[in-house]
Amino acid sequence: MNIFLKGRLKSFKYAIKGFFLLIKTEHSIIAQSIIFLGIIILGILLGISKQDWINQTFAMGLVLSIEGMNTAVEKTADFIHKEHHPKIGFIKDISAGAVTFAMLTFLIIFIITYLPYILTYV
Ligand SMILES: Nc1ncnc2c1ncn2[C@@H]1O[C@H](COP(=O)(O)OP(=O)(O)OP(=O)(O)O)[C@@H](O)[C@H]1O
């Protein structure tokens, strides 16, 4: 096998390892995954449209991806400087702020998708 393909395969292996590390050890990722699983079941039960599934899947992927990156930033910050420092606080805060952008995006998509169903049932 050529070196390029071998390298890509190795990267993929590490990426899958990281994926399982996140969903097994990171509480925020575990909690969000459980909530998203509930929403997926809700989507199946309500029979949401193909476009709704695309929107919802994108939004969920966005939240989990940014949350994963936020975890990496937090761990890097703790590794570089364990003690309290205003700059570490700032770095962690803006990293968490990025998650908020993704969460708001998800929330807007969630409301647009499910509000019509909720309104017809109440
Ligand atoms: N080393 C530090 N120096 C200054 N502020 C910090 C530091 N560590 C954390 N903070 C502040 O605390 C907030 C929460 O940080 P972090 O998410 O690491 O803490 P945690 O809630 O204990 O972690 P976890 O999410 O793993 O439970 C940060 O956004 C930041 O405002």
From TrEMBL:
UniProt: a divalent metal cation binding residues: 26, 74
Cofactor(s) needed by this chain: Mg(2+)
Active site positions, chain numbering: 67 (proton acceptor)
Cofactor stoichiometry and binding remark: Mn(2+), Zn(2+), Cd(2+) and Co(2+) support activity to lesser extents.
Highest taxon above the source species: Bacteria
Gene Ontology CC annotations of this record: plasma membrane
Membrane topology term: Multi-pass membrane protein
Lipid biosynthesis listed as a keyword: yes
Family to which this protein belongs: Belongs to the bacterial diacylglycerol kinase family.
Protein name: Diacylglycerol kinase (ATP)
